[in-house]
Design a protein that fits this description.
Distance between the termini: 52 Å
Strand content: 15-25%
Shape: elongated
Largest sheet: 4 strands, mixed
CATH topology: Nucleotidyltransferase, domain 5
CATH architecture: 2-Layer Sandwich
Radius of gyration: 18 Å
Order of helices and strands: HHEEEHEHHH
CATH class: Alpha Beta
Number of helices: 6
């Protein structure tokens, strides 16, 4: 067995490519809750996460799967559904200031669509306007016009009533 080894093994989650500890530490030092956006092959998941002493707790969570209960008939993984998911999180979570956390993956336009939804719902999140998708794509005009009409109806429904308030 070697003594005083020069090489040290990295943390398991770093070796597996699941956690970038440098980025996580920078997010945790801010002390603000994080808007965590994860994309799967079927859904868009957005969570508001608060960290206390390195332990994360979820304050509010929304998935694009919830949009079907509101009458959404389109895909649950495209840009308009990501925007509506962000709007749902922004409307129903009582935390005012958030920081975007997109994880180890490179942020895509769907991540920024969730961000735009939260900002439109009244949340304060530092971002660049250049990164946000254009309005025509958020409304689904690039897919079809019927989808954009459904989006407007569901957007009004979310902004009008919303769900129960959380912490």
């Amino acid at each position: 067995m070697a003594k005083n080894a020069i090489y040290s093994v990295k943390f398991r989650r770093r070796r597996l490519g699941l956690t970038n500890y440098t980025r996580r530490l920078a997010l945790l030092k801010s002390g603000k809750p994080r808007l965590v956006v994860r994309l799967s092959n079927r859904y868009v998941l957005a969570q508001v996460v608060k960290s206390v002493d390195g332990h994360d707790s979820i304050i509010y969570s929304a998935s694009s799967k919830e949009l079907t209960k509101m009458g959404w008939k389109g895909s649950l993984k495209n840009l308009p559904s990501a925007y509506l998911t962000g709007l749902l999180v922004g409307k129903n979570c009582s935390v005012k200031e958030l920081i975007l956390d997109c994880g180890v993956s490179k942020p895509s336009s769907r991540v920024f669509a969730v961000l735009k939804g939260c900002v439109d719902a009244g949340k304060s999140i530092p971002h660049s306007e250049k990164a946000l998708p254009i309005v025509e794509r958020l409304e689904g005009n690039h897919i079809n016009e019927k989808l954009s009409n459904d989006l407007i109806k569901i957007k009004e429904k979310i902004l009008k009533d919303g769900k129960k308030k959380t912490k």
